[in-house]
Design a protein that fits this description.
Blueprint lengths: L8 H4 L13 E4 L3 H13 L4 E4 L13 E4 L6 E4 L4 E5 L4 H9 L3 E2 L10 H6 L8 H4 L6 E7 L5 E4 L5 H10 L5 E8 L1 E2 L3 E9 L3 H12 L6 E9 L14 E9 L3 H12 L4 E4 L2 E3 L17 E8 L4 H11 L9 E6 L21 E8 L5 H14 L4 E2 L15 H8 L1 H14 L15
Parallel strand pairs: 1-3, 2-3
Antiparallel strand pairs: 4-5, 5-9, 6-10, 7-8, 7-9, 11-13, 11-14, 11-15, 12-13, 12-17, 16-18, 16-19, 17-18
Helix pairs in contact: 6-12, 7-9, 9-10, 11-12
């Protein structure tokens, strides 16, 4: 247990997003279930809120006055290739799971970034850019959750043992307790062919219009997203992208190389590429495709989900972040959804947003001094997409300045789902101990 005056307090509180620091009353570095239980009881007895930190990719509040439970030391991974089940502890990152599943030719429904926490990712939905349209959300494949609830007890929750809590946990994020372990199904993946096509920003209009028409017909085994990149001239940025504006078409396919190349041919022909990095990969290397920052950065982000993305929406995007827009946002990504992401989940859960056809994510990073300008640009970008946006959004997409009131969360979850979450919150956390999050208030 560390207090603000202790030497290691700031290290214990370190977050991946440097724009969202946490400064709790007490920081607890948990090494196992007993520590988590003790910390939850300590907080409950003193009526202090509990905040959970695994990696700090999605911090919602500064946790002032709270007991922060840092679960990052709890990161044991077990994979059973026969049952195709993975079991991870509460603070595990994807980069700790991928080598273990890969050695058995298996893959989890993981996201773009290897540094993201596995539990936070599942509790907020979990949209995989490679396996999502084939298998659905990561939350749809959770088999068991071990969780310390507000009474300090450890429960093993399955869809059969406690159907309401199980449903609420998967989508309701950290509102119901501290997850100490998660078990989920993993899938056979024989081969992966993927990488990026980089186009100079001046070709943005023809590439984006062509890509939009092409991408909607891709089979679920083959996926693509597109990102507008305005990256600084810094050593951590690949040399050919330093200080440039580029369009990054990301491509992944579980299909054989020849077939995938045939699918990709029309995009390769849209304009000259600055770089083509598409090649055969192991699934554990997939993070290299998406260029997410490997080390902590200050970042301001905001996202939404779209019902559709017609040609007028391409023009709206180009007007906001295209070559002549004067935009400063470093990263704006558009990702098609659909397939199994739109279908009924394999296990019941509270993940909202399934009717969305697309997700739009924008961020400005590296420049805390530009945070107000980034917020302004992101608000304008999402405003321009209002005609195609939907209210329901996967919780993983929410930033610290989105979904911060009950009225907003009711829209984000949809009324029926939100009311059920509130009822379950009343039952399992009536005093709202777990409120340093996108908070489902029990009142
Ligand atoms: C670069 C980047 C790429 C991403 N790519 C994707 C993607 O492809 N698909 C996708 O779906 N999402 C993606 N995300 C979103 C990501 O899934 C969420 O930000 C997720 O919440 C991160 O969890 P974390 O543990 O890393 O972060 P943290 O900030 O440590 O945790 C976020 C919240 O999750 C909850 N939480 C985490 N661990 C526990 C636990 N053990 N018990 C209880 N609650 C817990 C808490 O409410 C906590 O406040 C991405 C985010 C970033 C920054």
């Amino acid at each position: 247990m560390l207090l603000p005056t202790d030497a290691d307090y700031l290290t214990e509180c370190a977050t991946f997003n440097l724009m969202t620091p946490v400064r709790p009353a007490v920081a607890v570095g948990a090494t196992g279930v007993a520590d988590v239980r003790a910390a939850v009881r300590f907080a409950a007895e003193r009526d202090l809120p509990v905040a959970v930190l695994a990696t700090g990719h999605q911090v919602v509040g500064a946790a002032e006055g709270a007991v922060l439970i840092n679960v990052s030391r709890m990161n044991t991974v077990q994979v059973d290739p026969v049952s195709r089940l993975a079991r991870v502890e509460g603070g595990t990152r994807w980069q700790q799971v991928l080598p273990e599943t890969d050695r058995h030719g298996l893959a989890p429904v993981s996201g773009t970034s290897p540094t993201v926490g596995v539990v936070g990712y599942h509790l907020g939905g979990g949209a995989s850019p490679i396996l999502g349209r084939k298998h659905g959300y990561a939350a749809d494949h959770v088999q068991a959750v071990e969780i310390v609830t507000a009474d300090g007890e450890l429960c093993r929750v399955t869809a059969d043992s406690e159907p309401d809590l199980f449903w609420a946990l998967l989508g309701g994020k950290g509102n119901f307790g501290v997850v100490t372990a998660l078990e989920f199904t993993v899938f056979p993946v024989e081969s992966l062919y993927g990488g990026g096509l980089f186009f100079a920003g001046e070709h943005a209009a023809e590439v984006l219009h062509g890509w939009r028409e092409w991408v909607v017909d891709l089979p679920v085994e083959t996926n693509s997203s597109v990102a507008f990149l305005r990256l600084p001239a810094r050593p951590e940025v690949p040399e050919f992208l330093r200080g440039t504006f580029a369009l990054h078409v990301r491509f992944t396919s579980l299909q054989p190389r020849e077939k995938a190349d045939r699918l990709l041919a029309p995009i390769r022909a849209l304009a000259p590429t600055v770089r083509d990095t598409i090649t055969e990969l192991r699934y554990r290397e997939a993070g290299s495709i998406f260029l997410d920052p490997p080390t902590p950065v200050p970042s301001v982000a905001r996202s939404t989900m779209l019902r559709d993305f017609p040609a007028q929406a391409v023009d709206a995007l180009l007007a906001r972040v295209g070559p002549d827009s004067g935009a400063r946002l470093g990263f704006v990504e558009l990702r098609p959804l659909g397939g199994a992401l739109a279908g009924p989940p394999a296990v019941p859960n509270a993940v909202p947003g399934r009717s969305a056809g697309w997700q739009l994510f924008g961020s400005g990073g590296g420049r805390p001094d530009l945070a107000p300008a980034f917020r302004e640009e992101l608000t304008a970008l999402l405003g321009a997409f209002a005609p195609w946006a939907q209210d329901e959004i996967m919780p993983n997409l929410l930033s610290d300045w989105q979904g911060t009131t009950p009225a907003e969360l009711r829209l984000i979850y949809g009324s029926e789902r939100y009311d059920r979450l509130v009822a379950i919150k009343k039952r399992y956390d009536p005093h709202n101990l777990f409120r340093v999050n996108h908070n489902i208030t029990p009142a």
